[in-house]
Every structure is written in structure tokens, then in C-alpha cells.
Design brief:
Elements lengths: L4 H25 L12 H13 L3 H40 L5 H18 L6
Helix pairs in contact: 2-3, 3-4
Amino acid sequence: MKPSLRDYLTTVLAILVVFACGYGIGHQFGSRPAEPAPVASWETSVFERLDSELSLDASQREAIRGEIAASARKIEQVKGQARAAYRDELLGLHGRILPLLDEAQRERLKKSRAALQHSSGTGVSP
């Protein structure tokens, strides 16, 4: 008995389904890219760059490490102040727009405001 056109089409369709399933499984469970290496701290990267660019000697390295550490502390302090100023400005904005909103909007804004105040650790109210 000679195969019919229907038999050929069924075979081709079955092969396509097998390839599609294999592709899907390979895509889902295939090799994953390697995790990126952890990023060095700001202090480490600045020191390494300065050391390589300036060819520092041992005494310079120690002095410069201390200066970089002092700068890092100042930068963290400024970042904290900037975050606090950002939060305070958002809370101020909430207070200024509150009268412009209807009751349902006020309730949603109050929930958002409470979450912002809770995250900042302050009990500031308008």
C-alpha cells in the first residue's frame, strides 16, 4: 500500500511538533549565562584605578586608601541627606495637593503617604 498525501503531511507535522517541543524545552531549561562577578566597592575600584594610572608606591597607597575611605564616608552622608530631602519634598508635595483631590483620591494618597513616612522613619504630617 502506497502512503497517501495525508500520511506525508501527518509525518511532517509530527516532526515539526517534536522540533518545537525540543526547542521549547531547550529554551526553558537550557544553559544559563554565568552570573556576573560581584561589583567591587566604590572604594576598591577608585583605589585600583588610581594605583594603576599613577603607579603608587607603598606609602602613597596607604595614605590614599585613608583619603578614599574618608571620601566614601562623606559621600554616604551626603547620599543620606539627599534621600531625606527627597522624601521630605515628596511628603510636602502630598500635603500641597491633598486639597485638590476628591475623597477617594485623598484616601489613596494618605495610604501612599503613610507608607512613605513609615519607610523614612518619620512621623511628619502636613
